[in-house]
Specification:
Layout lengths: L2 E4 L2 E4 L13 H5 L23 H11 L12 H4 L2 H8 L9 H5 L5 H7 L12 E9 L2 E8 L5 E6 L6 E8 L2 E9 L5 E7 L4 E6 L5 E9 L2 E10 L9 E7 L5 E6 L1
Antiparallel strand pairs: 1-2, 3-4, 4-5, 5-6, 6-7, 7-8, 8-9, 9-10, 10-11, 11-12, 12-13
Length: 259
Amino acid sequence: MCVVALGAISITGCGPAGSTSAKPDDRALKSCLPPDFDPAEDTTFVTLDSPLYPAAEKKADDLASRDFSQASGNAPKMLKSTVVQIVESSFFLLPMNSQFLPMMTIVCNHDIYAQNQCEGMSMIFGNKATLEDVDMDAGKLSYVIRNLKTNEVAHVIIGDRDYNDVSLTIKDGQKTTKYEFSRDIDGTEYFESENSDGETRRFVERPDCSGTFIQHDTENGGPERALEFEWTSAKKPLMRIEWKACRYTDGKKCGSGEF
């Protein structure tokens, strides 16, 4: 049994939603996959997997033992003891930015639809939410998850069984957040999210597990923070990660570095 939450929607008793019935297509297998990926068991979601590789994990261990009182980079002095540590460590949390897709496909996906058209899957929510408007059109699966207590609504569109093209829109009162997941024919993966407050998250991850990540946060209608990462292949021992961070409260202050 497990419990998954997205906003106010909770999913209890997660079943084998990620089960597969056929070999993933070539573009999925070319992408940067987790180091322990098993094509016979695992699902080819568009997720950020570079930080899961040994070279990235070694970076995390090195950072954990670093004396940040002597932090390098051209960050202003006031940022060195705080932002440097937060920003550099946060790279290893980036996979969390793309975990919405596995959450929202637990109740309905191409495999479940082939079995029973996703009928009866609302029971996974208990009495808290319903699965509605399930439809398959030219191989594209769509459905709605509605929270019965808050009226939060999630619209999901899955382009194919390998999740090469997926969109997710969540409406919660006056706030809307859109997520886009896609994968090119060469295996390059893209993730974009944007909410009605103007906050954005974007990443590009290439087949060699190199990539970029850009994040913009807002506060009171204006910019609060910008964060960028660019990294070389996580499949190679000499992986390099460059970062840049800016804060806009009380004037723009920026810092950058490499680890």
